[in-house]
Amino acid sequence: MSLTVPPTLLHAAETGEVDEEAFVACVRDSLPYAWETVSRVVDDLATTDADFTDNVVPPPGDAERGQLLRALASDAIRAGLERHFGVRLAFQNCHRVAAFRPSAADSEAYRRFTSSRGQLLNQSPTLRNC
For residue 98, what is the enclosing H or E element? Predict the structure, then answer.
């Protein structure tokens, strides 16, 4: 299961629209490692003029790796994080999360990061099972 959904939030989803802040809080509480990782790259982005910042440290274990995969593989969760943090997220392997400024979402840096070539160059035998 990707998220631990409080009964009140589930009821809201069953009866109509879901409050964006409540959804993001559910993501934060359900996937704390993913939240921490995304928060960190977003905070790093705020301290630089670069188009993006990224996380290159693999997760400490399978549970944390799973959180990143669930957060960034879900269109809804990823979009919620992007709206909340005001960034464009990109993802490679099991850990390399990048936060791009919205103005850089069509940049050469973004195209390079999300390209087939970028994915292949980011491979490593130590990450084979991620």
Answer: strand 96-100
Q: What is the DSSP letter of 76?
A: H
User: Is residue 48 within 8 Å of 104, Cβ to Cβ?
Assistant: no
Residues forming beta bridges with residue 97, ordered by sequence position: 91
The CA radius of gyration of the chain, in Å to the nearest whole number, is 15
- Rounded to whole angstroms, the Cα distance separating 62 from 11 reads 31
Residue 93 CA: distances (Å) to CA of 7, 24, 40, 90, 106: 33, 24, 18, 11, 21
- Per-residue pLDDT tens over the stretch 63-117: 999 999 999 999 999 999 999 999 999 988 767 899 999 887 788 777 777 766 5
Parse the chain into domains and list their residue ranges: 7-127
Please report where in the chains the tokens 């999360």 appear, as a residue.
97
DSSP assignment string, 58-123:
PPSSHHHHHHHHHHHH-HHHHHHHHHHHTSEEEEETTTEEEEE-GGGTTSHHHHHHTSHHHHHHT-
Residue pair 19/31 in contact by the 8 Å Cβ criterion:
no
Closest CA to 58 of 97, 84, 18: 97
